[in-house]
């Protein structure tokens, strides 16, 4: 079936998770001309994606509600929404709502409700559709883009936005050997798998960052009283988010570092200064965050790759800390002697009856231990578009409509998010937002960064659409 929007200016958003839904909200709220917006998203609800589809009440956003309003001009918007709506969705807000860390499923409901509000209040003549299908192919032209869907439709759009989110990597040969074992969970959000291992004596947690906290919080909520063995390549353990205050804008005091080594040197010096003054090191992310984009864009590909290889793990545990209420499950298990963490490499997993035998390489040698449960907590994010098996992504890469970014993170695009083809042509009517732009703007996975991108993208598209220009089109 072929669909032509005719008199409307048509925008197709491919992906209906947080980034796609938020972009639709900003377009509907800010437009002065009629828009014909379609979101392609197989999920029933828009705005949730992977992060906010969890149904576990102990999975919390990893920042206070005061920082996650969808509308930066109304910083208390989420706080007011929680005050008026949270109880009807089963969450009783604390007295300090602004400082609270609400459940992620509730934040997804907030995004969904805001999209419904924007649709209901859209400018006269605008239309909105959610097609529960995936894109399968895209063909660009100077003035139109044609998209085919898994439902057999063909859409023609004036603008296309790639809001594809994250992709799951295939199981490695290690995990594939136990994929069907009842004691194995390929993700910490597999509710059925968590239920199966809740009575285990000891659980191996592969990874030690935010996904690991989700797993422990979920198991403790199920009454798990066994032991945890968490492993990570570098031996780093995620920490709880504290209410540190910005101490000093130390990166503003000189030229920005141009190499990963120079950046690390400056940051380590500032951390030593904070320690000497008995100040909390968690002031560091507050000082660094405003400079992430200029630091990343100023660096060359070699330095970006060096950062991703050597410093990414350190940045992740520094910038992305855990919500206090969910992290309490970890600290309680540590206090009870039930949680251990060590640097180790996972070499093999093998079925061992009702258990799983894991071969681990640690600093003291190679060891083989059996566990009643094994949970992969590494986050399951595959960023290299050359390795993603999704048919649409594969077609985009093979056709040359997009070019995988040289860092191995996402796709090439202008700093504003206009997609660049394999031959170096800038698509003026195909844009990207969020995770596809990790190579262009490193922190494109965060709520605040995607909020900034959505506003800028909506304004850039709408700037082309004065009523006079629309009439002439």
UniProtKB/TrEMBL annotation:
Residues 12-166 form the FAD-dependent urate hydroxylase HpyO/Asp monooxygenase CreE-like FAD/NAD(P)-binding domain. SUPFAM superfamilies: FAD/NAD(P)-binding domain. It comes from the Bacteria. Pfam families: NAD_binding_9 (PF13454). InterPro entries: FAD/NAD-bd_sf, HpyO/CreE_NAD-binding, L-asp_N-monooxygenase_NS-form. This is FAD-dependent oxidoreductase. It comes from Rhizobium tropici.
């Amino acid at each position: 079936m072929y669909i032509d929007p005719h008199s409307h200016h048509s925008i197709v958003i491919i992906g209906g998770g947080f980034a796609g839904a938020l972009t639709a909200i900003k377009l509907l709220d800010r437009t002065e001309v009629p828009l014909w917006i379609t979101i392609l998203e197989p999920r029933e609800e828009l705005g949730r994606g992977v992060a906010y589809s969890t149904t576990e009440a102990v999975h919390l956003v990893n920042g206070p509600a005061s920082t996650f309003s969808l509308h930066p001009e109304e910083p208390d918007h989420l706080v007011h929404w929680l005050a008026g709506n949270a109880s009807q969705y089963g969450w009783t807000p604390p007295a300090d709502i602004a400082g609270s860390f609400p459940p992620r499923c509730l934040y997804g409901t907030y995004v969904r409700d805001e999209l419904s509000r924007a649709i209901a209040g859209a400018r006269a003549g605008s239309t909105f559709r959610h097609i529960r299908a995936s894109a399968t192919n895209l063909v660009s032209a100077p003035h139109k883009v044609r998209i085919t869907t898994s439902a057999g439709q063909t859409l023609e759009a004036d603008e296309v936005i790639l809001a594809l989110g994250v992709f799951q990597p295939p199981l490695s040969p290690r995990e594939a050997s136990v994929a069907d074992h009842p004691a194995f969970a390929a993700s910490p959000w597999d509710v059925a798998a968590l239920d199966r291992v809740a009575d285990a004596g000891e659980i191996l947690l592969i990874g030690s960052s935010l996904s690991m906290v989700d797993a422990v919080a979920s198991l403790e909520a199920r009454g798990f009283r066994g032991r945890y063995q968490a492993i990570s390549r570098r031996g780093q353990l995620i920490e709880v988010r504290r209410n540190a205050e910005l101490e000093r804008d130390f990166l503003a005091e000189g030229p920005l570092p141009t190499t990963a080594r120079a950046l690390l040197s400056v940051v380590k010096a500032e951390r030593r200064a904070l320690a000497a003054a008995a100040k909390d090191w968690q002031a560091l992310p507050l000082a660094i965050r405003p400079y992430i984009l200029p630091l990343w864009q100023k660096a060359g590909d070699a330095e970006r790759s060096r950062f991703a290889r050597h410093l990414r793990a350190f940045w992740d545990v520094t910038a992305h800390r855990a919500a206090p209420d969910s992290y309490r499950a970890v600290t309680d298990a540590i206090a009870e002697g039930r949680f251990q963490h060590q640097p180790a490499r996972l070499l093999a997993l093998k079925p061992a009856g009702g258990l799983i035998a894991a071969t681990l390489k640690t600093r003291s040698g190679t060891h083989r231990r059996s566990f009643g449960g094994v949970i992969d907590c590494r986050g399951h994010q595959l960023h290299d578009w050359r390795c993603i098996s999704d048919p649409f992504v594969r077609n985009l890469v093979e056709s040359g409509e997009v070019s995988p970014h040289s860092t191995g993170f996402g796709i090439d695009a202008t700093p504003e998010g206009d997609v660049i083809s394999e031959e170096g042509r800038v698509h003026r009517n195909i844009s990207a937002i969020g995770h596809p732009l990790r190579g262009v703007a490193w922190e494109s996975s965060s709520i605040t960064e995607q909020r900034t991108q959505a506003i800028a993208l909506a304004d850039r598209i709408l700037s082309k659409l004065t009523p006079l220009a629309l009439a002439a089109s």
